[in-house]
Amino acid sequence: MKDTIINKTWILLLISVSFICGCVATGPVSPFYRYETKGKVLISPPYLQVLLTEYNNVNSALIKVNSPYKIYSYQSERNNKFLSHPQLSNQSAMTEPVMVFYSRGKINIGKPVGLWNDDIIIVPSGENSLIQVGKRNYRGYLRIKGLPDNKISLVNIIDLESYLVGVVSSEMDENWPQESLEAQAITARSFAFYRIKQSNLAGNQTRIFDYDLTDDVFSQVYRGEECTGPKTRQAVEKTRGIIIVYDSAIFNCIFHSTCGGHTEPINMVFGGPDAIPSLKGISCGFCNQAKYFQWQAGYSQEEIIKMLNLKNIQAIDDILITTTGPGGHGTEITLKISGSSDIIMQANRFRLALGPNKLRSTNFRITRRDNVFQFTGRGWGHAVGMCQEGTRGMSHQNFRPLQILEHYYPESKIVKIY
Ligand SMILES: [Zn+2]
User: Fold this and answer.
1) What is the pTM of this model?
2) Which long-range contacts (CB under 8 A, 24 or more apart) does 40-43 make?
């Protein structure tokens, strides 16, 4: 891949990015200040706040900082200029994990009890320092936020490029082809920018507190340093600052495991306005060697009633796929209930409720044997955007990362923004 791919759309893109970052050279500094620009080029990747979902709204957590560290008081009005927040303390490296918890409006870190504010940032010294949270290690900083009822939430504050190493290694295997890893790095970087934009637009009012992404499948999977290796690191470094845009704008370039043959328009899966050309769905044809290209799953009638949380319903007469996308995935499901009106729901909601690791996609046929509904399906995931297993198939046929992205996101463009 060429390491710099700047096309004519970059000026428009810059406007879009500047809007997101609030960092144009003139005019007021937006409350969403993310990173600095010099002239028209972004100097460095933004910092992200990634919620560690396993440690969201919990009583306590075990952490260990392997180097001397500073504690800052987090002040939301200072946004992401983290090191300009008031500094509270210098601490030496921890020799063993300590418990963090929240009591009487103060965060406590280990014993003897050290009491800090209700929202703090731990900033280790040194480039290669790690913060251990539970069994995982994280680069960057750790924010500990006190919540009502003495609960805490933990957020990893990390620069985008370091974060991406963790995402690519969590979303794909280190042993996957380099082309796949690079395509994934670009997609994950672009998705992160999209989420920054969304969290900025949402502001702080609709959330308990401000973070950009979660570390699970509802954003993109991120397990810190757990699975990282030289190939994933290289894929991120080689694509540094490169993102994918449509019509000079960042878009919701989501991805999934296995499309089963054809991807779907984003609006048919999740609702919303008509899909842009890049998210309209395409014939994949490269994922037929995937483990879950075909699968089966069975559920009893009672299981389905319970998992869908259907109140006052004893029996399901039938489950019908009432609309289907161009890729063959069901997009609307109708449950026929005896003595009651039909229940109609988005097929993707149905899939998530029945467990996305069992009912792996919405591209299925249903047969019924006595009390059991048997699903025979294809693919894994929501089927919108890049098919990860398909990138593997394309890599094996010598397609390059940019060709892979052009295939899965038609009419998109690749730009380098820092
Ligand atoms: Zn596919």
Assistant:
1) 0.87
2) 40/11, 40/14, 41/417, 41/418, 42/17, 42/241, 42/417, 42/418, 43/418
